[in-house]
Amino acid sequence: MPTAPKTTATPRRGRPGYDQESVLQVAVQVFNRHGYDATSMGMLADELGVSKSAIYHHVPSKGDLLRLALDEALVPLEAIGQHEQALTGTSIQRLEFMLRSTIRVLIERQPYVTLLLRLRGNTEIERQALERRRSVDRKVTELMITAQQDGKVRADIEPRTTTRLMFGMINSLVEWYRPDGPATPQEVEENAIAMIVDGLRARD
Amino acid sequence: MPTAPKTTATPRRGRPGYDQESVLQVAVQVFNRHGYDATSMGMLADELGVSKSAIYHHVPSKGDLLRLALDEALVPLEAIGQHEQALTGTSIQRLEFMLRSTIRVLIERQPYVTLLLRLRGNTEIERQALERRRSVDRKVTELMITAQQDGKVRADIEPRTTTRLMFGMINSLVEWYRPDGPATPQEVEENAIAMIVDGLRARD
């Protein structure tokens, strides 16, 4: 599994107790709680207990905060498709690798992926992020089609609909998975793969 | 498949062009667009092009509108567990019947189920609806546990986590399924069941 790359820019020196990364961690929570549109820089400042100018010391605008937060989800998701195990092996092995890796990113970057999945596309930054997300999704759909053509995925499923359903299952994790709940990330991954792959694999 | 029972109360005579059911159809759309908390009776009146008093002619309060709208989802979901096919046959057949029926209700009652799935539980009406939803979900979890004990569901999955993942897949339909899209309801149902049941069924 690839180590998720750090995606924040070189940190600038901030006020005591906050650097860009911790500002980002608070910002993503406030965005998820109130929605990006309804969040003002004043609300973020209140949440951090600093002045608005202290936030502008870290990032030029609310849009930049959104862009940086979305990169925390998109960069590791995009990295999956570049990994050696996504490019070599049988189509069904590559599909399984991509699904397992996606589940891991969703759990590790839960608040950032939540933000990504709830985007409405009202601004250019949002639309660009949604296009990058669609591009990631398309890679999985294409692999599903390839795996079906290879005879590794059963012939009686429709690959696009099935991929949507599969992403529905995986993406639901950001809404209900709790790190302090009864299931470990490993158990969630194994259960999801057991259901998806054994349901999809062509029978001999 | 049971015919979904009509859940609206006996319609009172309303203004020309609107009865309680059509008020409900508009209300659920506005609730889903803006959120229940953020929706006022004035916004509903504007959307319907009538006065607030015309709405109060149909329902006493916003809370009653919410309760009626949630019943449009909950009553048919609760009916599934009472159907003969949910009570007879092998555990895996009953599970498949409940999943197929749930998918049908989600597609047929899409806006009402969307409202149900987005509830936050801020009011007593919401909390009661969430408790009814949990009760419906519990029936499926219990059936999954029974099916595993019967040896019909593979022994290496954790039934509660797997049920959550399965509901994640099915519930995602309300967010992405479009009646005018490429997949028919029947195709969605067959693809979901193919992935879920063949993945869950114990191998001989």
Describe the structure.
The structure is a homodimer. The first copy, chain A, is mainly alpha-helical and about 200 residues long. Chain A has 2 domains: about 20-65, Arc Repressor Mutant, subunit A; about 70-200, Tetracycline Repressor, domain 2 (Orthogonal Bundle), CATH 1.10.357.10. Mean pLDDT of chain A is about 85; it is low at about 1-15 and about 200-204. Chain A has helices at about 20-35, 40-50, 50-55, 60-80, 85, 90-110, 110-115, 125-150, 160-170, 175, 185-200. In chain A, helix 1 (about 20-35) packs across helix 2 (about 40-50) and helix 6 (about 90-110) crosses helix 7. The radius of gyration of chain A is 19 Å and the shape is elongated. At the A-B interface, helix 9, helix 10 and helix 11 of A face helix 9, helix 10 and helix 11 of B.
Offer a quick outline of the entry.
The structure is a homodimer of 204-residue chains. Chain A is mainly α and 204 residues long.
Helix content of chain A: 55-70%
Q: What oligomeric state do the depicted chains represent?
A: homodimer
Question: How would you sum up the global shape of chain A?
Answer: elongated
Estimated structural class of chain A: mainly alpha
Major interchain interface with per-chain residue totals: A-B, 32 and 32 residues
Alpha carbon gyration radius of chain A: 19 Å
Enumerate the spans of chain A where pLDDT stays under 50 for 5 or more consecutive residues.
1-15, 199-204
CATH architecture of the largest domain in chain A: Orthogonal Bundle
Question: How many separate domains make up the residues of chain A?
Answer: 2
Reading the helices and strands of chain A in chain order gives: HHHHHHHHHHH
Number of helices, where a helix is a run of at least 4 consecutive DSSP H or I residues of chain A: 11
Look at the structure and give the CATH class of the largest domain in chain A: Mainly Alpha
The named CATH superfamily of the largest domain in chain A: Tetracycline Repressor, domain 2
Question: What is the overall pLDDT average of chain A?
Answer: 87
Whole-Å distance between the termini of chain A? 30 Å
| Main sheet makeup of chain A | none
